[in-house]
Amino acid sequence: MTPALRFLLNGRPVELTEVGASDTLLDFLRIDRRLTGTKEGCAEGDCGACTVLVGRLTDGGLVYEPVNACIRFLASCHGCHVVTVEHLRGPDGGLHPIQAAMVDHHGSQCGFCTPGIVMALYGLWMTNPDAGVAEIEVALQGNICRCTGYEPIIKAALAAGRAGGQAADALAMERELVAAKLRAMRGQRVELSKGAERAIIPADVDDLAAVLEAEPGATIIAGATDVGLWVTKFMRDISPAVFIGHLMKSARVEDGEIRLGAGVTYSEAAALIRDHIPAAYDYWLRIGGWQVRNMGTIGANIANGSPIGDTPPLLITLGARIVLRKGDARREILLEDFFIEYGRQDRAPGEFVEEVIIPTRPQARIAAYKISKRRDSDITAVAAGFCLSVENGIITDARICFGGMAGIPKRATGAEAALTGQPFARDSFEAAARAVAGDFQPLSDWRASADYRRTVAANLFRRFWLEQSEPGLPVRLHKAVGA
Description:
- The protein is of the alpha+beta class.
- Helices cover 32% and strands 22% of the residues.
- The strands form 5 sheets. A 5-stranded mixed beta sheet has the order 2-1-5-3-4.
- InterPro entries: 2Fe-2S-bd (IPR002888), 2Fe-2S-bd_dom_sf (IPR036884), 2Fe-2S_ferredoxin-like_sf (IPR036010), 2Fe-2S_ferredoxin-type (IPR001041), 2Fe2S_fd_BS (IPR006058), Ald_Oxase/xanthine_DH-like (IPR016208), Beta-grasp_dom_sf (IPR012675), CO_DH_flav_C (IPR005107).
């Protein structure tokens, strides 16, 4: 065990012994290190003004990803390389190609959001230099700019891609050296304190199990895309906090099922979703912005128990299961059985989600829908997952789950019954659209009224029918987006 938080900041080592559970990366950068290019806009991971790159070790090597510094806790940076806009420079020491392109194409006006946009585009430039407009738009989902209308920014991104220079970039040239330094920082549990606050970073999953047995009431923090707001918006005490974003990263396909460690992020799972559940890929890219998908984990989205979590409706329709662990004991349950009622899940003190198992169901007709006020980077008002089996024109099995319609993600059992055994035909889906009204008693809140939610739920059955019966109908806008 060590009492020191260790990471790299713009290539230089940092070692801290006094770190609180609620200390954010943004405050450390701006207040402690005076790296004020990283801005605070929304303090909730929505606007992207605070975007930085975080490099972390994976099985495939060192990976740099844009993240939101405002809701990223400092303790979660152990063994990582944090890169801010101040670290960017071109081969001659002047502007980086991304920065030069933003100047040439008038991509900045007031300038407040510009550093975050530059860092998001830098992450894209490093990993996908040939990105087209659709990929650039996805990369900018988590960056809000109220001045430019984005067209100059997209032109700048395209121009930077054409300019090239990735091989000569500092982060590419120093990759092996940085990876070796980060590797040397790992391997021990880290315990930190600042005043009354405590932060614990387990060495591995076995160590996590031991920590939670000793601290069953601790706040478990993976990507902090929700817990971060507990601190920045509600000033909640999260101590003691156990940081697990570096753990449970296994992702594989086995016997027709995707098996994901609970610490796999949305971004890490995206390629598996694209390749094995392609009908859900567009939905997957609408979970937060890019920065949020780089931080948020599938296991935490489940364990959080939110009735508007993005992944449970889809995963429940597919028949997903989860593995829960406490100490050395494990148990496997259906995901839908995990949610008991609002704020209550089938999880004992000291128990945690260790793995998520998702059947791919290649022969089924699958769809996932997210209804929100903004298309990108917004919280869900209504989410739905559809998974139907059809044989000889008859619906033999119907699994439909909604989020935002009840206190938990919940299957539409009445609508399922209205479809099962019926012809795959318009009238069957009209009957299901009528039946779904009896499945839920939604609430009204600032995201949507109860009447709106009921109307949307019914209309999603009609939308599914149109998409599945006549694929050429323009019932949704598609973006040709690569991995």
